Amino acid sequence: MKVPKDRIRFNVGGRIFETTSTTLAHAGRNSFFGALFDDNWNFKQHHNDSNPNSEFFIDRNSDCFSVLLDLLRTGDFHIPPHVPERLLYREASFYGLLDHVRSAKWGPFDGNRLRHGRSVTGRAPGDGTAIRAGPDGGCCVAHGSMVHVYDWMMEEHPPINLDYQRVNDAAWLDSENVLVSACERLGRGDGGMGLFNRSTGELRHKFQVWHENQVKSFTAGALSTTCDHRIFSSCKGRSNEYGIGVWDQLTGKQIDFFYESPGWSLGDADRLQWLSGSNCLLVATLFPRKDNCYISLLDFRAKSMVWSWSDIGATVTVDEKRVRDAIAMEGNHAICVVNEYEDLGFMDLRMNVGSVRWSSRSRLMKGKMPDEPCYPKLALHEGQLFSSMDDCISVFCGPDWVLTSRLRRTYGGSICDFSIGGDRLFALHSEENVFDVWETPPPPVV
C-alpha cells in the first residue's frame, strides 16, 4: 500500500491540528479519513487549491478529535477527565473509529488478566434470570418478562418485552439479533421462542412446534445455536411435545424434534451445548429443577442417545446428589460438573458407564452455604475453565485444571449467572439487579 507522508492540517471547531497521511491511513478505508484518499492511497487535495498550508475544516468537537488523533498516532487510548465518554463515542462513530476505540479499550480475552471495568445497575426490581454476552462486546439480561439489551458501550437499547411471559433463556444469533425463550401461558396459546431485533426490541419471527401435523403451544427453555444456522431449544408442551426442537435459523422452520423417552428428562433441560467435533448436543437437566440429574449426548442424525449419565439409583452420597451445572470439554473427551461447594468433577465421555471423578473433596463438609444460595455455573473459553460461587468467579487452567485466579466484587450479592463473549466477561448478581463487566487490559504500546 502506497502511503505518502504528506502533512495535513485540520481546523476542528476553530482549533488547528497538523498530522500526516500516514497517521490518517491507520483509520482504514471505511472511515471518515479514508474518504480523503484516492484508490492508490494518495491524499486528495482540494480542487484548484495548490496552497500547502490549506486547512480542512470540520465542525466537530476539538477535544474529542485530539483524543482520536492520538489513538491513530500511537495506538494508545486515554480519555481526559474533562471529556465525557459518551460524547467521545459519538464522535468516534462520526469518524468511523468505533472499532479502533473498542480494540484500544481492552485486549484479547485472558481470564487470568481480567480487571473490573464497570458495574451496571438495572432498572427492574427482583432477581435476574440470565445474562448473555454478545459477539460485539455488548450483552443482554433476562429479567422476569423482559430482556434488557446493552451495546458494547453499555448504552441500553429499547427492551424486549414479552407481555408478562417469563423469559427462560436468551442467545445471540449475531450482533443484531437476539433469540428469546419463554414460558407458555395457559389459555393464550403464546410462549415458546422468538427472534428479536437488538436495536429496537421488535419481534422478527416466532418459532413454532409441529406435532402430529398441528401447531402446538409450548414452553421453550435452554437454547443453543450452531455455525450452520441451526437453533436448538428444550420444549415442554401439553401433549407429547417433550424434548429438544430444532429449527433452521434462516427459514424459521422446524426441521427436527428429539422426543423425550420415558424415565429421562430433556424438555426441562437447564443447559444445551452443541459439540461440533462429534455432531452431538449436550443436554443437562439438573437439581433443583428436577429431583435427579440427567446428562446426555444426542445424535440427531441417528436419533439416538449416544452417552448418558444420571444419579438415579446411585448411592446417596454428598458427591452424586449435588451436581449443579455441567459443561462438555470436547478436546478432553470429558464432561465437567460442579457441586454446591464449587468442587469440580469430571466424567470420561469414552466410557459408557462411569461415575464422577471429583478433583477436590477437601471442602465438601466444611463449606457453608449462604442464606439465599446461587447455584454455581460453569463456562469454558479458549482453554480456561470458569466456575462461579457466591460472589466470586474462579479461573482454572492447565491439564489438571489448577485454580489460577479469582474474580470478586462485593457489591450486588451472589452471582446467579455469568457469560463470556466479545472479549468480555459479564457477571449477573442476584440481590441488587446489577451486573459487572470484566475486561482484559490492552497490551502495552511499545
Automatic annotation (TrEMBL):
InterPro entries in the record: Beta_prop_At2g24240, BTB/POZ_dom, SKP1/BTB/POZ_sf, T1-type_BTB
Domain BTB per the UniProt entry, residue ranges: 6-81
UniProt-listed Pfam families: Beta_prop_At2g24240 (PF25279), BTB_2 (PF02214)
This protein's pathway: Protein modification; protein ubiquitination
Highest taxon of the lineage: Eukaryota
GO biological process, one term: protein homooligomerization
Name listed for the protein in its UniProt record: BTB domain-containing protein
